[in-house]
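Q: For a teaching handout, I want to show students what a protein-ligand complex looks like in token form. Below are the inputs, and the small molecule is zinc ion. Please produce the holo structure.
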Amino acid sequence: MELIKLRGRTYYISSATNVGVYRYRNGLCTLIDTGLDNTTGRKITQVLENNNLKVKYIVNTHAHPDHFGANNFIKEKYPGALIVASCKERIFMENSILEGIVFYGASPMHGLSTRILKAHDTAVDINVTEGVIELENKKFEIIPLEGHSIGQIGVTTEDNVIFCGDAFFSEDKMEKYPFPFLFDVGAHLNTLKFLLDTNYECYMISHCDVSLENPKSLIQKNIDNVHQNLEIVLDFLAQPLTREDLTELIIKKYDIPMNISQYFITISSVGAFLTYLLEKQSINMDIIDGKMYFYA
Ligand SMILES: [Zn+2]
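A: Here is the structure, written as tokens, with zinc ion included.
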């Protein structure tokens, strides 16, 4: 891991989840996201130490554990650091069991409590929603990028670099995960269309080795991917199916490797597609003999 310059005072640490770094002249820095766990936290702090940097702020794009799981480790190392997140994501970061509850709908069954789905609770110090905030006398613009999660935010630095979290994915990731994890399909499409109309100098997404200067074709591919999946779901629903039936067909179609977490991630995203199609009145729903069926 190393500190890689993007533009001006904006850098990133390339990692499984990229960590944005904004360097101030006084040796302090603001991080954007931290990574999955203490092991990642240790590596990040090593890179920061090698560059004589101390953390003053951590801005989290969203409350998925691979984005804030190393917060506590970093905060212990730099006790004065303040954590910034959106109001909607804050609830999940401060009550991390909610992640499992959302997937399961009740007290999460064993297997949903793995570290991927449940990070440690992390207190948030500053709420943000939208607009400009000043951190250590530098302006950061907070851009709502909802859809992948309930209240995801993008963070723009004064160098015109935007950190987009998981608002869109690289071609590699789309190939590996062709059925994306989404919380709200409509909000996700709106976010992608919004990003298509922006002109930042540099775009950083969380799971990609490189920064992007012109991501428009990639954003369009992400939009196309959602539309393809909507078509696939609609085709399957030519016959009435339960949400579990539909999940089974999606898992088999894409040969998604299975474990308990992956099952709930998939059925959860299937739910997002169903909600979207119901809202568009492209499908109907009926409860018959104790089963809920969806059909086109
Ligand atoms: Zn995510």
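A: Two things your students might notice: The first strand starts at residue 3 and ends at 7. The first helix runs from residue 38 to 50.
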